[in-house]
């Protein structure tokens, strides 16, 4: 098991502080002292597949870690009390300054990566989106650059996040 897995990182119960915080077989840790149980489930996130009128795919360049400098799709984590669709609209506004006009859910992709010394598990929902206005796109938030690619020119190895790489590959293959 990797050293950043929650079972390796969390040594003390966050409720009572006991060092009797033990791994269970159901993606959880349980405190033998107070009974507190913590599940390390996948966090929800969204990603937008956006094509322009020429059929080019919009890819962003990550301004932050993990995978700083690699290509990505616009999107991000779903906030507490927010639907995936609301998160999609918010993330597009934050990262591109654009408004989602229409969207269609495709499927979800599991992922895991290391952040702040901890393995983070995600469930990344892919949406194909059209924007109200493509001329307003401007990189912001955790995006440092926006690039358009004809599908045959996309280099999957330049996409840093595994689930996003798979998402883009599947989209290109099933068009």
TrEMBL record:
CDD domains: NUDIX_Hydrolase
Organism: Acetobacteroides hydrogenigenes
One GO term (biological process): NAD+ catabolic process
GO CC annotation, single: cytosol
The protein's name in its UniProt record: NUDIX domain-containing protein
A Pfam entry, by short name: NUDIX
Transmembrane domains' residue ranges: none
InterPro entries: NAD-cap_RNA_hydrolase_NudC, NUDIX_hydrolase-like_dom_sf, NUDIX_hydrolase_CS, NUDIX_hydrolase_dom
């Amino acid at each position: 098991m990797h050293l950043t897995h929650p079972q390796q990182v969390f040594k003390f119960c966050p409720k009572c502080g006991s060092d009797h915080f033990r791994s269970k077989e159901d993606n959880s840790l349980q405190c033998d002292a107070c009974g507190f149980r913590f599940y390390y489930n996948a966090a929800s996130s969204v990603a937008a597949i956006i094509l322009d009128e020429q059929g080019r795919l919009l890819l962003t360049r990550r301004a932050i870690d993990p995978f700083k400098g690699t290509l990505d799709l616009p999107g991000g984590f779903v906030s507490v009390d927010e639907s995936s669709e609301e998160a999609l609209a918010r993330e597009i506004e934050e990262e591109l300054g654009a408004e989602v006009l229409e969207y269609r859910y495709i499927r979800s992709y599991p992922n895991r990566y290391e952040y702040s010394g901890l393995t983070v598990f995600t469930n990344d929902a892919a949406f194909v989106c059209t924007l109200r206005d493509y001329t307003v796109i401007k990189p912001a938030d955790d995006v440092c650059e926006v690039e358009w690619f004809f599908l045959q020119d996309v280099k999957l190895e330049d996409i840093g996040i595994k689930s996003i790489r798979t998402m883009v590959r599947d989209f290109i293959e099933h068009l």
